[in-house]
Amino acid sequence: MAEFKNPNQQGGGDNKSLLVMMLVLVTVFFGLQYFRSKNNPQTASPNVSQSTATVGGTQAPAQTPASPAVTNSAAAAPAASGVPTVQAPAEATTTVENELYRITFTNRGGQVSSWILKKYKDSDGKPLNLVHTQAAQQFGYPLSLYTYDAALTASLSKALYVPSASGALAAPASLTFNYSDGATTVRKTFSFDETYVLHADVEVTRNGAPVRALINWPGGFGDQDNASAYAGAQLDYAQNAKEQHLAAKKVSGGETLNGPFDWAGTSDTYFAAIFLPDSPDTATVAMLHNQLDVAKTIRRTGLGSGAPAKGAIEVPVLGAALGDTSGRTQTRVYVGPKAVNVLRGIHATGNTVSLEPLLDFGFFGPIGKYLFLSLQFIHAHITSNWGWSIVLLTVLINLLILPLRVKTMQSGLKMQRIQPQMDAIKERYKKYKATDPKRNEMNVEIMKLQKDNGVNMFGGCIPTLIQMPLLFAFFSMLPKVVELRQAHWFWLPDLSSADPYHILPIVMIVSQFLVQFYTPSPGVDPQQQKMMAFMMPAVSGYMTWNYASGLALYWTIGNLISIAQQSVMNRTSLGREMREIAAKRARRKAGTPTTISGKR
Length: 600
Fold this sequence. Notes:
Elements: H1 17-38, E1 52-55, E2 58-61, E3 93-97, E4 101-106, E5 111-121, E6 127-129, H2 133-139, E7 144-147, H3 150-158, E8 162-163, E9 167-170, E10 173-180, E11 184-192, E12 197-206, E13 209-210, E14 213-217, H4 227-231, E15 234-239, E16 242-247, E17 256-258, E18 263-267, E19 271-277, E20 283-293, E21 314-324, E22 328-337, H5 340-343, H6 365-381, H7 386-400, H8 402-417, H9 419-429, H10 438-452, H11 462-477, H12 503-518, H13 526-545, H14 549-569, H15 573-590
Parallel strand pairs: 3-9
Antiparallel strand pairs: 1-2, 3-4, 4-5, 5-6, 7-14, 8-10, 10-11, 11-12, 12-13, 12-22, 14-21, 15-16, 15-18, 17-20, 18-19, 19-22, 20-21
Helix pairs in contact: 1-11, 1-13, 6-7, 6-11, 7-14, 8-15, 9-10, 12-13, 12-14
C-alpha cells in the first residue's frame, strides 16, 4: 500500500507547520508552568510601617497598625477596677457536630484541636482531620488569637478558658469561651449551623481598653502529606470583587493588609479556611508564613503506602488571621472543600461576591471551568464513576471535532492533487539560493496556486488548534478539583495523582506514536515526519508520567479514538484516492513501478 507523502511539501521542508505546532505545544506547556508560578502579583505592603517579633515561629509586627481606638498597652487606658478572674480549673474539650464535620474545641486557648470532615478521607483512609497537628503544635491551633504582642499571643493560647458547654453539642448550637486574669479579658463566641460555615465573635480588652486581636488559622491543613500538597498552599483574598491568589513565596510573614475585604484566608489544593468579615470595610488580614521540617511526617508519594522521607525537608506553611480596626472581630468562617457547588453558595457580607473564584484553574481557567462542569454533569446523570465520566467526555469531544478531521482530510487531498504543479514551480526556482529574492516569487506562485484551487495550507492544523486549549485546560483543572481526589478507576486509586504503575502513560506514548503513524501530515517532509513521530510521544509521556492520571486517561482515550477514526477514514473513497495519488508520486520519484508499503 502506498506511503502517504506530504502533499504540501516544498522541497527541503520549507513548510514546517507541524514543527511549528510542536514548538507551540512545548512552549505552552513550559509557559504554563512559568505562569502558574507568576500569576499572582505581589501584594502591596500595608500603609503602616511595622517591625517584627517572633511569636512561636511566626513573624508578627511588634507595633499595631495605626488605630486610635485600639491599643495593646496597659498604660494607654485607665486601669479597670473590680474585674473578676475567670479561669477554668482544668483542661476540657467540647465537640460540635453536624452532618459535615466534627469539631473538637479545647478550653486551653479556646481553640480547635481537631476538625474532622466526615465526607473526606486522608491518605491512610481515615476521616480527614484538617488540623495540621505538627504545624499547630509549633505555630498555633485554628481559631486561636493573634495579637501584635508576642507575649500576649502566647499567654492567650495557653490560658484555660471557661466554656459555656462541655461534652458534645449538635448543630445548630453556640459555644462561648470566657477568660480573665484580672487585667486581660477575652470572650470568644462561635455559632454553628448545618453548613461548613460558622460565625465567630471575638473581643479582647486589657484594663478596659480594646486590644487588637485577630482570629487565626495559622498552620496549614491536615491533608498536606506530600511535597506537592505543600506547593499548592496559597493565601487568597478578594477586594472589591477582585480576587488574588498569592503563592507561598509571595507571602510575607507578619505583614498586615488593610481592607476592605470581601473574604480572605488560606487554602491548599483541595481545602480552604476563609474568613468573611461582618464589616468588610474595617477588616484587616495578617499574612503568616512559616517553614516546617516535615522529614518525619511527609511521604515520598501521595499514596498511603509511601514511606517517610529521609533528611531535613523544609516546606512552607501558610496561615491567615483576620481582625477589625475596632478591636472586636466578627466574621463568618468557611472551613471545607474547594468544591464548586459548595463555594458558589457562600457569599460575602452585603454583596453577591461568592467564594467560587477560590477555585482557580489558572490561565485556561474559563475553559477548565466548563470542562469540569461538563464532567460533573456526566457524573451526576450518566455514570457515578469519575474515571468513566472522563472517558465519556473525551468521546463526546472527539465526536464534535470529527467533521473538522474530515475537512482536514479533504484539504489534504486537494493539496495532493496540485502537488505536481507545485513541484514544477519549485523545479524552476531550485537553482536559486534560499536567500535569493527570487525565492519569494516562488512562494507567491505557490500561494496563488493553492488559493486558486481552494487549498488552505493551515487546514491540517485546525483540529490541533482546537484540542490544544482543551488539553491544557485539563492539565490545569484535573489536579485541582476535590471531586477527583481519591476517585478510583480500575487500578488507579486517585485520578488527581499520578498512575502508581505508569500504565496509562506508557499506553499513551504508544498510542501517540500510532496517531502520528496513521495520520497524513501535510506540510512535513519525511525527515521531519520521522522526528515528530518520536518527539510527540516523548513530550506527552513526560507531561503525564508523574502528573494527574486523569490527564493521561483523557489523552490516551483521545488518541485511541483518533486512531480508530483515521483508520476508518483511510478506507473511504477519500482515503483511497489519497493513497493512489501518493503511490503514483512514490513510483514516479523512484523511477520504478514498485508499490511502497505505507500507512493504512
